[in-house]
Amino acid sequence: MGKQEWRDGEMRDGIRKVRNARASKAAGKDVYSFKVPYRDANGKQTSETFSSFTAASRFRNKVRQQRDEGLSIDPKAGRISVKEYAEKWLAAAASKREGTYTEYEKRVRLYIVPALGGRQLRAVTRDEVQKMINDLKRRGLSPMTIRNVHRTTVALFRTAQVIDHKIASSPCVSILLPELPDREVEVLTAAQVREVSAKMPARWRAVVLVAAGTGLRISEVVGLTWDRIDLEAGSVTVDRQMSTKRLLAPVKTRKSRRVVPMPDVVADALRAHREAFPPLMQEVGDLDGKTVHRTALVFTRADGAPANAGDVRRPFMRARDAVGLPASVTFHVLRHTYASLLIAGGTHLTVIRDRMGHSSISITSDTYGHLYPEENERTRGAIDAAFAADDDPDDGAAGSLARV
């Protein structure tokens, strides 16, 4: 018995063959399409039509796989373009920390949309994501920038897959990324810190010493208020920072909330600053758009308004240049300087982690672990001491296994 003809309108194994009247008229012969009925994520009966049986079969298999795996994904939902979905994704991300949102928006606008924006979300392949990464490398972007773009791309497609159920899987798998170079941390000497501070305008002079003497981030320094400073006890409570919009905001992470010991050099600088620029109570808005803080900021602009990081960075760069330091010395180097001074004093990495508000010890270790050269000597000494003890001929344990 020969193969039975597949008639118009007949369903076979989840695919219906249908005559395309418009295409048939144009071609002067019968042209058929292949329709796959299925239920979408809301349980509504719908269908997808393909011009070839092969494409219809792939779609049918994908729908069945999703059904078998218990996924409720509407394949049509992924028709949205990457550009359009990215706009919706960024709108939802606006509630995140200001700095995080700013970085997301920049990476989407400059890198992800130009490379993938015109593609349907469901159509983006791993090869296309890899090509985007390779192109960024050819353009000379730093390995860290490329990795951050990849991280944002992963977050976008993961949201589309796991939260919005627009795609069954993410194309951001097994992507080859450029290796990060060995991290080099630039630090200043105490004398250089004093020189830069002396070249700053009087209003910002203490900012340099506060940053180098407490390790606070620049946004945390300009977000300081006098009620967070105890000059007598010698401590600074860090639980807020100043946003670029000159609004008070939560610190970077939960671990960033901390109390930092204040050395005398910082306390003296703050006393002199308070004498020269008496505290002024004012109402400062919060990034949440609702809260208003009635407080006295430690550092303000000349008109008394709140300062942001940019207000400090500009005079810092001028002071740095006046001292003759290289352009690679940014304000953040003062934070590295604080850590290096603690290390020179023998402070343990876990304490440095807490003082600097790092979210994990690995961040502290990766950044500053190489600044502990004396640990090499301690390691050698510990091993030599152990083997020297093992050389003792009177040791009755020779030849036996030690259990630890």
Provide a brief overview of the structure.
The protein is of the alpha+beta class. It has 15 helices and eleven strands.
How are the elements arranged and paired?
Elements: E1 11-12, E2 15-19, H1 21-27, E3 32-39, E4 45-50, H2 53-68, H3 82-93, H4 98-116, H5 126-138, H6 143-163, H7 190-199, H8 205-214, H9 218-222, E5 229-230, E6 235-238, E7 240-242, E8 248-250, E9 258-261, H10 264-276, E10 281-285, E11 292-296, H11 309-323, H12 333-344, H13 349-356, H14 361-368, H15 374-390
Antiparallel strand pairs: 1-2, 2-3, 3-4, 5-6, 6-9, 7-8, 10-11
Helix pairs in contact: 3-4, 4-5, 4-6, 7-8, 7-11, 8-10, 8-12, 13-14
Task: Give a description of the structure.
- With 404 residues, this protein is an alpha+beta fold.
- The protein folds into 3 domains: 11-72, no CATH class; 82-163, Orthogonal Bundle (DNA polymerase, domain 1); 190-371, Intergrase catalytic core (hpI Integrase, Chain A, Orthogonal Bundle), CATH 1.10.443.
- It contains 15 helices and 11 strands.
- The strands form 4 sheets. Strands 1-2-3-4 form a 4-stranded antiparallel sheet. A 3-stranded antiparallel sheet has the order 5-6-9.
- Helix 8 (205-214) packs antiparallel against helix 10.
- Mean pLDDT is 86; it is low at 396-404.
C-alpha Rg (nearest Å): 31 Å
Oligomer: single chain
Q: Specify the helix fraction band.
A: 40-55%
CATH superfamily of the largest domain: Intergrase catalytic core
CATH-derived topology of the largest domain: hpI Integrase, Chain A
Q: Kindly report how far apart the N and C termini lie.
A: 77 Å
Q: Proportion of β residues?
A: 5-15%
Q: What's the order of the H and E elements?
A: EEHEEHHHHHHHHEEEEEHEEHHHHH
Principal-axes geometry comes out as elongated
Number of strands: 11
Structural class: alpha+beta
What profile does the largest beta sheet have? 4 strands, antiparallel
At CATH level 2, the architecture of the largest domain is: Orthogonal Bundle
List the uncertain runs: 396-404
Can you identify the CATH class of the largest domain? Mainly Alpha
The spatial strand order of the largest sheet comes to 1-2-3-4
Number of helices: 15
Please indicate the count of domains. Answer: 3
Question: How would you state the average pLDDT, rounded?
Answer: 86
